[in-house]
Amino acid sequence: MADRPVTKLDKSDVLAGLFAVWDDITALLGGLAEADWQAASPLPGWDVKALVAHMIGTECFLAGVPAPQPDIDVSALDHVRNDIGVMNECWVRHLSAEPGADVLNRFKDITDERRKALTDMPAGEWDAVTLTPVGPESYGRFMRVRVFDCWMHEQDIRQALGRPSSDDQLGGPASELSLDEIAATMGYVVGKRAKAPEGSRVLLELTGPLSRSIRVAVDGRAQVVDDFGGREPTVSIRLDGLQFTRLAGGRPMCSARSQDIEVDGEKEVAAQVIEHLNFVI
Questions:
Q1: CB 3.0–4.6 Å: which of 32, 85, 173, 250 could bond 17 by disulfide?
Q2: How far apart are CA 254 and CA 256, in angstroms?
Q3: What are residue 218's DSSP bridge partners?
Q4: 274, 238 contact by CB (below 8 A)
Q5: Fold of 177-276
Q6: Contacts of 221 (CB under 8 A, 6+ apart)
Q7: C-alpha distance from residue 159 to each of 41, 76, 214 (Å)
Q8: Beta carbons within 8 Å of 88's beta carbon, 6+ residues apart
């Protein structure tokens, strides 16, 4: 099997998005009442505090800090499905009894530490191949996955608090990088998960502040393409860009935006793609 191509990404672009989403989360959490930290999130078994604990845990892992020992066998919990889930849950349980303000301070401290480490990282390390949630990839790609993960959790927190992102808040580098990361998986979604037949040309048309067009051609294997070479799509799926990210992350749609999904072309293939959009582990 040929080596997979490695994604090389501009460090300053990715870090601008990562630092921006950390700033947005910090601002969102500032001054929350203790009850708000316990608001149920769209992720089963997790409240707002658990989402923040998970982000703290991942950044601690990347900084070389070992996960705390849990008080129970977390792998037995219904919502824990893999080793990453086990590590997440160790941090979630460890921080669950801490006051929200203390958890926020931990978040600020570890993200400040990571900002410095990432800013100082040499280009060679940034481009070096490492193990990532999307397989062996550049460290830069891993950090784009971190932007996506944190940005998705910002939206989860907003949903839990009933403070959905405004159109203006959806602008900016973190949203764009998150969409880039989701778009990069759409070949896998259309080909492997939805099993779109050979010759399919799938157009995902995203509307609203996260508008963009994502095209996937199935030609031997499914891959994201810039255009269909002048040919019409065999399937068109049109929906709000934020709702697309919710479905891609296996989340319920946001009640504050249009939930309409318009489909043209081969309806059965479109239904399969929509049903299998969720690619997250």
A1: 173
A2: 6
A3: 222
A4: no
A5: Nonspecific Lipid-transfer Protein; Chain A (3.30.1050)
A6: 187, 191
A7: 7, 27, 26
A8: 54, 57, 58, 80
DSSP state of 169: G
Residues 6+ apart with CB under 8 A from 156: 41, 42, 43, 51, 251
Where, residue-wise, is CATH 1.20.120.450 in the chain?
11-161
Domain 11-161 has CATH 1.20.120.450: yes
Q: For the chain, list residues with pLDDT below 70.
A: 1-3, 70-87, 281
pLDDT reported for residue 2 = 41
The token pair that represents 280 in the structure block = 């997250």
Q: How many whole angstroms separate alpha carbon 106 and alpha carbon 91?
A: 12
User: Strand 201-207 vs strand 212-219: parallel, antiparallel, or unpaired?
Assistant: antiparallel
Token reading at 264: 């043209």
* Cα–Cα distances in angstroms (integers) from residue 48 to residues 35, 75, 79, 224, 252, in the given order: 10, 21, 16, 34, 16
* Cβ neighbours around 123 below 10 Å, total: 10
For the record, the structure tokens of 84 come out as: 């990453």
Residue-by-residue DSSP string for 19-48:
HHHHHHHHHHHTT--HHHHTPBPSSTT-BH
Structure tokens at 183: 């778009």
φ/ψ region of 31 (left if φ > 0, alpha if ψ in -120 to 50, else beta) reads: left
Tell me, what amino acid is at 274? I
